[in-house]
Write a structure and sequence with these properties.
Blueprint (H helix, E strand, L loop, with lengths): L16 H14 L4 E3 L19 H6 L3 H9 L24 H10 L8 H13 L11 H12 L6 H7 L2 E5 L2 E2 L5 H9 L5 E2 L2 E2 L1 H4 L6 H12 L6 H17 L4 E6 L9 H13 L4 H22 L2 E6 L1 E2 L4 H7 L7 E2 L9 H7 L7 E5 L4 H10 L5 E3 L9 H15 L16 H22 L5 H19 L3 H4 L1
Parallel strand pairs: 1-2, 2-4, 3-5, 5-6, 6-7, 7-10, 10-11
Antiparallel strand pairs: 8-9
Helix pairs in contact: 1-18, 1-19, 5-18, 10-11, 12-13, 13-15, 16-17, 17-18, 18-19
Amino acid sequence: MKEKLILNPRRFFDTDIKVRDIAIELYESVKDSPIISPHGHIEPQIFVDENYTFKNPTELIITPNHYLYRMLYSQGVPLEALGIPILHNSSKIKVEMNPKKIWQTFAEYFYLFRGTPSEIWLNYELAEIFGVKYKLTKETAIEIYEVIDRKLKTDEFKPRRLYERFKIKLLATTDDATSTLQHHVAIRNSGWHGKIIPTFRADSLINIESKGWKENIYKLSEVTKMDIRSYSQFIEAIRERRSYFKSLGATATDIAVLIPYTEELSKPEAEKLFSKALKGKISERETIRFKANMLMEMARLSIEDGLVMQLHCGSYRNHNEIIYKKFGPDRGCDIPIQMEFTKNLKALLNKYGNDKRLTLIVFTLDESTYSRELAPLAGHYPALKIGSPWWFHDSINGMMRFKEQIIETAGLYNTTGFVDDARTLTSIPARHDLARRIDANWLARLVSKHIISKNTAREMIKDLTYKLPIEAYKLHKILS
C-alpha cells in the first residue's frame, strides 16, 4: 500500500503550544523571503543556456550528492550500483548506467535516511517542487521517477526558471583558482538578470603536497600568461586571478584546510620553500609551514582587494583509501577531526584580525570548538565571523547546538546567517526552509523565556534570513 507524502505545516516546531505559536508567527514572517546563497557547489553551466534541461531525476538528485551515496555505501550498497565510475576499470566491473535502475536502488534504501536532514530535504523537494503525492519506496520508485522526469522536460523546470521560482536573489558557485570562468562570462553576456557569481577556490594552488600541484602551477601560468618560476611570481599570479574573479562578481574566496595553522614566513624563506616544492624536494614539516604562510598571504590579499576569506576546517578528505583509489575524490569518505583554533589562528589574527577591512569566515566540523574557542575569538576580533553549521551539522539538532553554544558569547551578529552549501539546485529551497523553521523555533524559545521580546525576535529572524549573509559576504553592491 502506498503511503501519502504529507508535510505537516507545523513540522520541526516545539511541542510546547506557547513556543510553537510564536515560532509559526516568526516563520510566516520570513518563509517567502528571497534566498541568498553565498556559498555552494551548483555548477554554473546549467544557467548558461535558457533551454538547458536536466537529463533525468538521477542526474539531478543523486549523482552530484555524496551526502546520499555515503549512507548507502555504509549499508553495503556498492558505488558501482549508483553509477559512480571506476577510475581504472581493468577488471571490467559493471558500473550501472541506467538512471532508472540507479533510482530504484536508491529508493529501496531510502528508509536508511529516516530522521536525517537528507530525508527532510528530499521529501520537501518531492512534495513542494515536484508535486509527488506518495512517499519514496521501492514500490513507488519508478512512478515517482517518471513524474519527475516528465516535469524536468518542461519549461517550468529549466534551471533559470527554477532560480526565479525559488526566489533566489543571488547564488555563488565554487570555482577553481585556474578556471577561465567561461560559464560565468557566458551567463553575463546572455543578458539574463539572474545573479550567479563565482568564488575563488585556492586549494589547488595551496596544497603543494598533492600529486597534481605542479600541473596546477602550469595551468596558473597559462591562464595568467606569466612564467611562474618564483614565489613572488606565484603570489602575483594569484593576485591577478583574484582580480579576474572579482571582475565577474566574486565577493569571496574559499580554502579547505585540515588544520588552520598560520605562520608568517620571511620572503627568503617562502621563496626557498616554493623552489623546493617545484623540485619535489619539500619535507612534510616545510609543507605545513608553507601552507600556513599561504593562509597569511590570502588574508593580506583579502585586505588588499576586499574579497571575503572563507576557511572550511577539519575535514579529513578521502579517509577511505580503497574508495579513493578506485573512484577518486569526493565520494562521501570525508571524516571530521578534532580542531584547535586559538593557537593555530593566533599569527593570522594578531597580524590582520584587528583590521576591519578583512572578513574571515571560519567553518568547522568540530562542534566542541564553538563555545570554547570560536565564540570567544569572534566575540573579540573584528575580522572574524563564525560560519553556519556545516556539512554533518547542517541539521535540526546541529543548528540548535550551534546557536546554544555560540550566541551567548559571540552574539548573533558575529555569525553569517544561513549558508546552504548546496550540491543540487532543487535542494536550495528545502535547506533554507528548514533553516528558517529552526531559527523561528530557537527565537520563539527565547521569547517564551522573556529573554527577548517578540518585536526583537521579528528583527532577528529577518537578519538571520537576509541581512547577515549579505553583510558577511559583502553583497550590498551586487544586489543593488
